[in-house]
Amino acid sequence: MLLVRSLSHYHFGRENESFREGNPDIALTIGNFDGLHEGHRAVLGALVREARKRNLKAAVMCFEPQPKEFFRKETPARLSRFRDKFQGFRDLGIEIMFCLRFNSELASVSPGDFVFEILRNQMHVRYLVVGDDFRFGRYGLGDYAFLKRKGLEAGFETESLKSFERLDGRVSSTLVRKYLEEGRLDLARVLLGRDFVIAGKVCHGQELGRTIDFPTANINLKRRVVPVSGVYAVRAMLPDGIWRNGIANVGKRPTVDGRVPRLEVFILDYSGDLYRQEIRVAFLRKLRDERKFASLQELKKQILLDEAAARAFFENEQRK
Question: How many domains does the chain divide into?
Fold first, then answer.
């Protein structure tokens, strides 16, 4: 039922053999951690400090698919890839990640079994930190009060952390997603503590950009639903580690009858082959929504305007 990754060793445990005798005692927190925003980082930082004080391994539990995805049978926009989340945990000092496959079997586990069978017997939890609105177990019947009471019986201490606030409100992945969808990247940046980034390997496209003198690096989103859409001023980190200014379009490219969402990046004043190499694209300013043009020449005229707007943005940023 459970997949275990040790972040320090990049080790995958085999299913049903992950919780073998001799597993270390852990300090644990539970959540989806989509985007690893400032609130997540505050929780994880506090967890790591507490784990060190108690001589425990710092661990997180997350779920695939996320519970809301499972129950709603839909795929909402995610802020980060699983790979990015994994890397972020490691960078923040987390030593073990437990990823539970969320299915009907896990959804039907009673709150008591979750505490005693999973947290105590399998995961060896000795300290647990969750939000005071945390719900778990069949029908969400388990709450923080139940967890704190039963945790003492199971031999671990449970604490809650107050919601982390920015912009006069609680920081949440839902609010970050909302700001990104609305094109309010400056507000999303405050909650994330950094620019919103999409990373991926460059793949072959239709190469239509070359025909209008705007060759692009194309990233297949692999059916991933992302919270941004339209044309943006961006910075792209290339394999050489240098961030370069650019323009990006996220969408289905209606002018050429595209069907699959794709990220296309035109890097200003750059020429080179990036095929099959990974790049990171940071979204800085939304320039416009995606729309369909009557011809490639009309599209080219608009891209020239987009390029001028992007260059003006970068020049203004440089003067600050």
Answer: 2
The reply to whether 287 falls in a domain is: yes
Same domain, 32 and 112: yes
Please report, for the domain that includes residue 114, its CATH number: 3.40.50.620
Domain assignment present for residue 65? The answer is: yes
Q: Within this chain, do residues 14 and 139 fall inside the same structural domain, yes or no?
A: yes
Residue 226 near residue 242, CB atoms below 8 Å: no
Tokens of 22: 């001799």
Kindly state whether residue 186 falls inside one of the protein's structural domains: no
Q: What percent of the chain has pLDDT over 70?
A: 88
The domain in which residue 232 lies consists of 195-319
In this predicted model, which residue has the larger pLDDT, 284 or 203?
A: 284
CATH value at residue 213? 2.40.30.30
Q: What is the DSSP string of 184-223?
A: -HHHHHHHHTS-EEEEEEEE----HHHHTT---EEEE-TT
Beta strands (DSSP E) in the chain are 2-6, 11-12, 26-30, 57-64, 96-101, 125-131, 157-161, 165-166, 169-170, 196-203, 217-220, 230-237, 243-251, 262-267, 278-288
Per-residue confidence (pLDDT) for residue 212, from 0 to 100: 66
- Mean pLDDT, the chain, integer: 86
Task: Specify whether 204 is located in the same domain as 151.
Answer: no
- Tell me how far apart the alpha carbons of residues 73 and 96 are, in angstroms, rounded to a whole number: 29
Q: What is the pTM of this model?
A: 0.87
CA nearest to 77, candidates 188, 233, 231:
188
Report the C-alpha gap between 306 and 312 in whole angstroms.
Answer: 10
Long-range contacts of 201-206 (CB under 8 A, 24+ apart): 201/276, 201/277, 201/278, 202/274, 202/275, 202/276, 202/277, 202/278, 202/279, 203/275, 203/276, 204/275, 205/262, 205/264, 206/256
220 and 271: one domain? yes
Same domain, 120 and 267: no
Does any domain span residue 248? yes
Is residue 62's pLDDT more than 60? yes
Q: Give the mean pLDDT of 224-228.
A: 87
